[in-house]
Structures are given as structure tokens and as C-alpha cells.
Amino acid sequence: MSRLPFYLLVSLLMLVGIGLSLHRHLQFDVPWFPGEQRQVWEIEAQINLTARGEPVIVDMALPDHQQGYRLLTEHTASSGYGLAFREENGGRRAQWTIREASGPQQLYYTVQMLTAPDARGPLQEPPALPRQILWERPFDTAARQVIERAWARSASPHTFARELIRDMSGERQGENARLLLTQFERAPLLVRLLNEAGIAAREVSGLYLEDGRRRQNLSSWIQVFDGDDWALFQPETGEQGRPDDLLLWETAGQAVLEVQGGSNSRVSFSMLTHNQPAASAVRSQLADDTLLNFSIHSLPLEEQALFQTILLIPIGALVVVLLRILVGIKTSGTFMPVLIALAFIQTSLLTGLIGFLLVVAVGLVIRSYLSHLNLLLVARVSAVIITVIAIISIFSVLSYRFGLNAGLTITFFPMIILAWTIERMSILWEEEGPKEVLIQGGGSLLTAVLAYLAMNNPWIRHVTFNFLGLQLVLMSLILLAGNYTGYRLLELRRFKPAAED
Predict the structure, then answer these.
(1) 269: number of Cβ within 10 Å
(2) Longest Cα pair distance anywhere in the chain, in angstroms?
(3) How far is CA 218 from the centre of its chain?
(4) End-to-end alpha-carbon separation of the chain, Å?
């Protein structure tokens, strides 16, 4: 039969697994290695206002995912106020409401933003151009001449915006520009002139991030669109581009803060930065499962801890497959070493080895006595299970009495598997002799130790827990190994005499 469908299946599993893992790393910044640190900015917005003893509505713009930054968590402190988060004109806003309030009021909003160079914000639609812009005399003539002058020295919407801003400031500021600035504020005026020239633009607000700063204010920027592409301009200097330490707080071209039922309203910002493990920094994003972001982070922590161990089993299975198929090591039971390796993870390697050898040795002695009773298989195995439980209980009590608390972890061994291992080794001893018992027992322990070393590796524990797509990669590797029909490494020693000749 053609092996093409088999290799297509293996390739599909490999590509899908790698693709899902790359998607989680690139889209959600899940780190490849444990212990990686990420910079997180914690920003607090404090709103102050004076209520007039009537219903109060406070509406404030909120930041969102954007280039270089990803929103992690947010919370508010507003005693007695109702709160709602809503989307409006492509921007996020928070609205606080109260039926009656009087005197000074303080509202707080805190957000954590993760510094993520690969982060991207939602696609922003260009604002609609106003149908008609009305200017009073003599400002209409001045606006027209300023636009014509900048238009002649530009070649695109972005270059026009740069030349227009330079004409409005510095040494190039002419009489027309000075006349307009006496009537209009700079940022709204620039937006109005750009719209007059048929260029989509709006005023946005940004916050410079500096560790330990308090009572900071937002700065105005001009966002200019050229089709779907946009660029930021500093309205004072005409400098194009977004600084790395600038967080865009309001991007919909609306007021940052609107208050009804109060006066003297203002908002100020304080900020701190700290580093924290990358895995915990992005955990809040991973809690929302989607088809491409399928993970177990949405489960309760108890179940997550359980799955963290379960997801290691395919690693142990891969080790067993490679050692049995490619190397040729014999084991007592196919996947018994994987379960023993899981017990080693709970007990530590040295304690687990000593406990395993003691239980199996004592169990073999008792099993040799049971063989003289000529019991049926089910009864004999049941008696071995009870014996294993008794042995583990006795060793645990004795170790505790002697102050060896590590001996208590022997209870993590799978008792059914130990009973079957003792049964199989006892039968093997009777049929093949002690040499074969040592070969298979030693192979089982060697395989269990190697599986333990692989499964207990911090990097492997990290990637198997955070990248579920790797389970498909492991499946494809196991299928490829299962297709191997050549010589095992330990079988090559049969050709040693031929090599010597």
C-alpha cells in the first residue's frame, strides 16, 4: 500500500501543531522559555470634580490594545457610583453614574499595560470628512492661503500634514498662521485645515510613560490617514512618528473626559513600571478560549495543576517509544515506566528509586510464597495489591517515626501498577530466570529515570502547559517512530564478530 496518506497525516499534524504554537507566541506573546520577564506599566487615572447635588454622569475615554502595548487588567474605585464599559465610535469609554452627589468627588481608574513590541491594535477606520467647513472672515482667506502654501510643497497626505504643521510654528510661521492661532487652538485648527484640504485627520490624546511620575496630563497629537495607513504628528513641531514611550489613551477623536452634573472636572495620571514573569503577565488574555487560542488557562487553578501533570505524559510516552523501538530496551510493561516517572516527579528521584526497589523486592518475596498456594490469577493479583498497600503503609509509618518525612511521598506510587509489576516479574522469574528479570527490571528503571528527567525539565513543563499544539507535534513524532522497521541499536552487537573478521 502507498504510504502517502500516512506521511500526509504526519505532516498535517506537525504543521498544525507548530502553527498553533507560533500563533500563541506571536499573537499573545506567550514566551518560549520559563522565567522570561515582561515590563508592565500600571497607570492610575484620578478624576476630580465638584458635584452640584444633582445626578452626575462622568464619561472618560479608556486605552485599548495598540502598537507596542497590550491591555492586561483594569479596575476602578468609585464608591456609590454605577459603572459601565462601552464601545463608542471605535473607542472604549467608561461611564460612572449616580443619582445624587454633592461636593468634591474622586473617581479612580487603574489599568495594567504590557510592553509588547509585537502587539497590534484594532484596525482604525479613517474619520468621515465634514460635509462643509465654515470660516468667518478674514479667517477663510488666511486658511485658504495656508493650505495652498503647504499643498505646493507636499506630495501625499502625510507630507502635507508635516509641511502644514511647520508653517504653523517656528520660523516659518507667517502672518496667516498667526492670525488663525489667535482665534483657534493649535491641534483642533490643524485638524480643521487638514479636513478642509480633503485629508482625514483627528486629534488624539497620548500619555508619556515615565516611571514614578505623578499628576501627569495627556498631550495632544494629530492622527493623519492616507487610505488605511495613518501616522502621528506632534502638533507643535511637526515631528512624524510615534515615540516608544507614548501610550495612546484616546484614539476616537472625542473628548477625554465629559461630566454632567458637576464642575471643575479634571483628570490626572500617575504611573509605575515593574517586571513580572511573562507567563503570568499574559495569563489574563489566555483565559478567553477561542478556536486558535485554545488553552486550559480558563479552568480553575486546581484543574490547571492537574492538567500540568497530565500534559507531561506524551513526553514520557515519546521517550518509551524511542527507547523501545530505536534502542531496543526491554521494559516490564509497555508504559509502566511513564507512570513510575510520574511518581518520581512527586517523590523526587532518589526517594522514588529507593521506595520503588523496596516495595518491589518485598513484594516479590511475598509473591513467591503466594505462588505455592496455587491461587487463581484474580485472587493472587488481588492479594498482591493488598500486600503492596500494606508495604507502603508500613514504610510510610516507619519513615515518619524515624523523622524521614521524604518517605511519606511513597504513597504517590500507582499501587495497581506496582502489583502488576510484581506479578509480571514473578512469572518472568519462574519462566525465564532471574537474568531476564534483571534485564527487564533494569530497563524499566532506566526508562523511568530518562522519562522523569525529560518530564521534569522546567522548559518542557513550560511549553507543554502553554502550547497545546505541541501535543500534535508529539503525536506526529510517535507515528513516525512507529513506522520504523529497521534494526534496533542493541541488536547491532550481533554483527560484532563480522566486523572483527
Answers:
(1) 20
(2) 117
(3) 30
(4) 40
- Over residues 301-319, the pLDDT tens digits come to 667 777 788 888 899 899 9
Q: What is the pLDDT of residue 501?
A: 62
Cβ-based neighbours of 121, under 8 Å, separated by 6 or more: 64, 65, 66, 67, 251
**Selection from 226, 227, 229, 225 nearest residue 253 by Cα:** 225
pLDDT tens for each residue of 137-180:
888 888 889 889 889 988 899 999 999 998 888 778 888 888 88
Q: Give the separation between CA 419 and CA 426, rounded to whole angstroms.
A: 11
For residue 497, is the peptide bond before it cis, meaning its omega torsion is within 30 degrees of 0? no
Which H or E run includes 267?
strand 262-277
Cell match 513550560: residue?
A: 462
Please enumerate in sequence order all residues whose Cβ is within 8 A of that of 465, keeping only pairs 6 or more positions apart, or say none. Answer: 296, 307, 308, 311
Residue 255 DSSP code: -
Cell numbers given for 32: 518560549
What pLDDT score was predicted for residue 280?
Answer: 59
CA dist 367 and 384 (Å) reads 7
Grid coordinates of 91: 473607542
**Cβ contacts of residue 487 below 8 Å, gap of 6+?**
none
14 DSSP 8-state letter: H
By the 10 Å C-beta count (0-12 exposed, 13-18 middle, 19+ buried), 25 is classed as: middle
Write the CB contacts of 378 (distance below 8 Å, at least 6 apart in sequence): none
Query: Distance between CA 236 and CA 216 in Å, rounded?
Result: 19
- What is the pLDDT at residue 292? 46
Per-residue model confidence (pLDDT) at position 109:
93
Helix 415-432 and helix 377-401, axial crossing angle in degrees, nearest 10: 120
Please check whether residue 396 is in contact with residue 411, taking contact to mean a CB–CB distance below 8 angstroms: yes
Handedness of CA 74, 122, 32, 344 (dihedral sign): positive
Listed as ranges, residues in the chain with pLDDT below 50 are 289, 291-292, 407-408
